[in-house]
Specification:
14 helices; 418 residues; four-stranded parallel sheet; 40% helix; alpha/beta; 13 strands; six-stranded mixed sheet
Length: 418
Amino acid sequence: MKIRSMLLQSAAVAGALGVSFTLGATAANAQSSVPIPDGTSVSIPSNATCDMDADAAGVSDDLIKLGAFTPLTGPVAGPGIGAVEGQEYVFDKVNAAGGVNGRKIKFSALDDQYSAAYAQQQVRRLVEREKIFAISGGIGTPNFVAVLPYIEKNQIPAIGMYAPAADKVGTMKNPHVYMIWPNFVSEFNVIADYVARTDSDASIALLMQSGDIGNDALKGMETALERHGRKIDNVLRTEATTTDYLPIAQELKEIGADWVFMVVQPTGIGQAIGSMAKIGYNPKVATQSDATDETFISAFPEEAEGISTPTKVAALTSDDPKVRAFVEDFTAVTGKAPSMWNTVGFAQAMVTIEALQGAPALTHDCLELALQHMQGFETGVLPPVTFSPDNRQGTNAVGIARIDDGVVIQVSAPVPVQ
């Protein structure tokens, strides 16, 4: 049975019973060409110290407990499951090679259904009942933002969460959260600039999900278009729970913009484009980088065709040796080629392991000291990750891609966003 089908069955049970599940190991090959992080990117100066004797829940002589709360059921289950698979691939390899200084990784993923309320329950379960050492990865902005006060109150290190909320994640407002993904201000700044440069006379509408992700996309677009003396012609709002996009499609058709930008959860993107097509409205579409994932493209092949999108991770068709090594080894281990969300999870886990390997001791204080002195860490699928004592945004580079004939074509490679 493939990993994905196993996860779906486990997630369904977890969602129905309100419990967690710990994912089983895959047949990881520790001798593959994908290097296991060894902590060498962590360079701690001699005058920097941490509490090496503090009690550390989730660490024993032979085990390190990590956890994530993430959608495993519901409309955002695909991204959540894909990223969990990517993390497990890394942790299995680390365990097969002997663990982190002899300690194996135990990773538990809990289903938050992309819900703020469920996320608050699940993070408490992870910390207070399962006694995890740190949060590694996870997917979703509204669910993660709802948990930020708890993370900060309890000073739990949270590494690599895919939650691009510009003013809350990746800033010193929440210093225990270490972000490795550009936020939607950066994504939509870059894609709006691209459209303004390549289609200068086009009219533009934005369909935005209420909340942080929509507000950030709006801000990024307005900033980019202002540089070109342009503006968004119309803005429509929707909710994460929307399932009927036909009324929105009808309103968009009446507006008649040449380009429709969308920032909604991935299933909603496909549903909105499909609804527009049903009523004979076929504008050019730009949306967030989520649309580059193969699960989205396979679920919505007609709707995905021709979409322009930002990119955060390396194109999996790249000839870069590090990308090829990851794609080939992941395929050999799991029996399927990696998706974009598998790649997201891979990067999340790689950064987590690098920090664990570089920590002077396995305490929260020392893990965060290692993260704050991670310099130029190469995951192979992201630009180099760098944090500092006053910087929690490890990367901020965005590229451009287009979906043609079901294939993600890289138009421009990710470059740093100022």
